[in-house]
Amino acid sequence: MKVLVTGGCGYIGSHTCVELLEAGYEVVVVDNLCNSKKDVIQQIEEITNKKVIFYQGDVCDYALLNKIFAHHEIAAVLHFAGLKAVGESVSQPLRYYRNNIDSTLTLLEVMIKYNCKNIVFSSSATVYGTPKSLPIKEDFPLSTTNPYGSTKLYIEGILKDLYISDNDWNIAILRYFNPIGAHKSGLIGENPNGIPNNLMPYIIKVATGELDYLNIYGNDYDTPDGTGVRDYIHIVDLAKGHIKALDKVLSGSGIDYYNLGTGKGYSVLELVQTFEKVNNVKVPYQVTSRRPGDIAACYADPSYAYDKLGWKAELGIEEMCRDGYNYVIKNK
Ligand code: NAD
Ligand code: WQD
Predict the structure, then answer these.
(1) Which among 109, 115, 214, 258 is least surrounded, fewest beta carbons within 10 Å?
(2) Per-residue model confidence as pLDDT tens digits over 76-127
(3) Angle 48-52-54 (CA atoms, 0-180°, nearest 5)?
């Protein structure tokens, strides 16, 4: 059975391609490589010993999507393609709205044309804004504080309206918490260019000596050690969640929403200390002021995903730290 993976060369998409191929799906990827490299396709093929059909292009390109759906009988789409840098979305809101929303509308229109009504969408825990309590459940109130988050919330709304208009659609909306780590092989992972926005890539660049020290954004939060608490999830666990969601969608599940997290929160300091211990490296840091827009703590109640999809995260924080570093060291 063939599935289309938009943004399949990216961090989460590439790991999901591996799991899809290993689960026996045929994989077609479309990616414009605006935040990834084509080599990823070869790496996925090396890990799985299976072929990927790759189209380099934009999901906003209606003609290209038509061509893909005309050539391949696509049973379902996993829609990862999107821009994801929160800060950049504040300075370039129209670029974010254009890319993330236009690509989704184009994709959905072409899916309707080819009568493919099964989709798994990459949403984010960012749609919970400042949660009213913890852990976060799927029915919590939704809000956003930046254009990136708004694109996710609008797309969730578009998908809901689409489902209301036509109950033949099967839609899984996955709200990811904080994915980190890499595939065990060290062939795929995350290593952004320049100064990273997210904590784990930043820690790794300090550990490799590319950056001098980590800035910890505040140690006066109402958390056990004062630093921010997040639900870090191993990227391979997250990728596996997509296979379960896809199977559910293909069984005719209507629309549903799932938190993909571990249910455990770790502080910035706990992550730094674990990283140092398992990799036997030093991560110098200094505490600076809070980053605007950050919340004190955020972690999932992942029990709905377990009840409905039979999925739960298996890998711990040590494996996340070890595998994330291993990827960067291997590819230096
Ligand atoms: P990523 O940037 O590594 O991957 C996204 C991929 O989409 C890239 O390969 C990029 O080149 C491609 N892309 C972007 N716009 C495109 C377009 N218009 N046409 C074709 N390709 C396009 O990001 P990721 O971390 O793998 O995230 C995947 C999805 O998950 C995104 O939608 C992101 O918003 C969402 N998400 C990510 C996180 C996270 O922390 N990484 C958390 C929650 C949600
Ligand atoms: C984690 C913790 C920081 C960097 C972001 C997006 C969210 C989602 C995942 C896409 C916080 C602290 C960070 C640093 C630090 N992405 N930190 N020094 O903010 O939870 O979520 O990525 O959907 O939408 O907002 O992740 O990794 O940036 O931060 O102290 O250099 O690390 O304050 O407590 P965040 P993060």
Answers:
(1) 115
(2) 999 999 999 999 999 999 999 999 999 999 999 999 999 999 999 999 999 9
(3) 150
